[in-house]
TrEMBL record:
This is DDE-1 domain-containing protein. Residues 75-107 are annotated as: Disordered. Residues 83-99 have a biased composition (Basic and acidic residues).
Amino acid sequence: AYREELQKLASLTDSAPVDKVNFIRAYAKAREAGMRKDIILSDWRFTGNWPINCYKALAHPEIQPDKEKLLEEFKTPSPPQLHSDDTPKTSRQVREMAKHRSRPTRQKYSKIAKGLEALEMKVAVQNARITSLEEQMAQVRRGKKRKAVPNPNRRFMALAESLATGEALPDSKGAEIEVDVDEEVESVIEVGVRSEDERDDFMVVTKHCQRTRSGREVKKPRR
């Protein structure tokens, strides 16, 4: 039937190529002529499917789907990527992504962009505050001066001169001269003068002072 229709068209169109419209018309007429009940039943008998078994026809290997496609359908989908280079990081990038999208989507993107702008302003203010505090700390460190520490050698020199000239010293058995030394010095020498009843001999006492964990000197109370 289809061949007959093509022959009719070829005689009318002078063997021109068949276009889509003529093909559909010829195929519809051939389908009406070929898809009749008696022809379909005879085809079932010829293929061996008699009495008719629909399951046998559906289980034919030529019409089964590919196993690879079935495995892909039942395969567990991989988790989405959490980190992507396309993730917007600024409000401007969010607004660029909102272009060429629907109106509700653009409204949502606009809200997200406003939130990012507020966060950007907050971060900028905090960074400026941190910078100013660092500058203040640097100025305080530069302006801090160390306390001047007297040189203890001058007192030792004065004591040696008085001993050499034989000047009178205070008449006290427990008199001691305390010397303030810098905190970096580990030991301090305390010099004291003692006078006995009938002699003018002098005694130099050397002691080691006690210090705290921070290195400060522990002074003894005067008697």
